[in-house]
Design goal:
5 helices, single chain, elongated
């Protein structure tokens, strides 16, 4: 199943360019008022926490644990403009739990790939400082 690379949840925060990059910097800049140092700090925190939250999903012992981790990831991804991660996390949140383990594993694979794309973009931004 293909995964959209932009926000498809109807929040209207994306623009045409956000569909091609992991992090929608224009979205983030609206919240940081263009403060590049603050943007890099926020992105650094996001990319440190995203893998930990994904790992919480992997280690979830209950549907509630799975849902909580997915919800957390969705919120933090939306905050920084990581629309693909947010959409995948929303999909995980709405799965209704962990009963379909193979679907969970596929979704986790997509989340890991999206997080790696975001990490790569953030790393390249840090190198240009």
């Amino acid at each position: 199943m293909p995964v959209p690379s932009a926000n498809t949840s109807g929040h209207g925060c994306e623009d045409a360019s956000s569909a091609t990059v992991p992090i929608d910097l224009a979205h983030l800049r609206r919240y940081t008022l263009g403060d590049h140092e603050l943007e890099m700090e926020v992105l650094g925190l996001f990319i440190e926490q995203a893998p930990l939250t994904i790992q919480s999903m992997v280690q979830a012992h209950s549907d509630r644990d799975w849902h909580r981790a997915a919800h957390t990831l969705k919120g933090s991804a939306r905050a920084v403009g990581a629309w693909r991660i947010a959409e995948l996390a929303e999909r995980a949140e709405s799965m209704g739990g962990m009963s379909d383990r193979s679907a969970c594993e596929r979704l986790l694979g997509h989340l890991r790939a999206a997080a790696e794309e975001a990490r790569s973009q953030i790393s390249s931004l840090a190198r240009t400082d």
